[in-house]
Design brief:
Blueprint (H helix, E strand, L loop, with lengths): L5 H88 L5 H12 L1
Helix pairs in contact: 1-2
């Protein structure tokens, strides 16, 4: 009775192989579940970041919309006057306007 018979050896091999297969399958399932959980966590974090960026963009747009109407009317007359002054200076530097004409036009514009 020292050695098991052929059937005993086959049975032992089958038990060992079955156990190894079961353990291997369980390990693979756990690894796959961990990878799935990690992927879902990354997707959740990306969605949160996108939501934060959209909220910040909407807030910035709202602030710009609130500030733009107040700033636009004040800037337009100053820009128009600067453009006219530059145009007068260009005409004076080209010799089209004399010193007296330039001074009179500038005084009229600034008045």
């Amino acid at each position: 009775m020292g050695r098991p018979g052929l059937i005993g050896m086959a049975a032992r091999t089958a038990v060992v192989a079955g156990t190894a297969t079961a353990v291997s399958g369980n390990v693979q399932r756990r690894q796959a579940q961990r990878e799935q959980d990690k992927y879902e966590q990354q997707m959740y974090e990306e969605q949160q970041q996108q939501a934060q960026m959209q909220a910040a963009a909407q807030q910035a747009a709202a602030q710009q919309a609130a500030a733009a109407p107040a700033a636009a009317p004040a800037a337009a007359p100053a820009d128009d006057m600067m453009a006219k002054l530059q145009q007068l200076a260009t005409l004076h530097s080209q010799g089209i306007l004399s010193d007296e004409e330039f001074s009179a036009a500038k005084a009229k514009l600034l008045a």
